[in-house]
Amino acid sequence: MVTRFASPLFRDFVTLRDAVDRLFEESFVDPARLLSIGAGTRSMPLEIYETPDTVTVKALVPGVSPSDLDVTFQEGVLTIKAKTETPQASDDWSWHLREIGYGEYSRSVSLPTKIDVDKADSRFENGILTLTLPKAAESRPTRISIQPAAQITAGAQASSA
What we know:
Blueprint: H1 16-27, H2 31-35, E1 46-50, E2 54-60, E3 69-74, E4 77-84, E5 103-110, E6 121-125, E7 128-134, H3 149-160
Antiparallel strand pairs: 1-2, 2-7, 3-4, 4-5, 6-7
């Protein structure tokens, strides 16, 4: 569920659910990562914005090749998984500083509207994954024409005669 604010003052506020989801994602650490040398936490910063016809998601995934990305969409939740390989140590060199986290990481977010997944488009450039997700037809704004009451009354009288 997405809360939309009419006032531009509140546009950048996150929903409580998104805030709690982010808190859980960043608070719990995979025990296997604690045991590995140089285990850093990997985050996947996102930008999500929408137009009348699409939702666009940009994910920052530096150092990841397109073949090591997996994107799924199920029941309104978009999940992006990424994987990087840990460089192997060598007898020719030794570590001085190791802050880059390696391994698998993912990010899941609830999208604000229904998506037509079959028409989704993706692009990967300079470590940024861009997903352009067309809104499902029932999610797009539809204009409803409004007739004055006099026309409605006249139309009803003509059909009853």
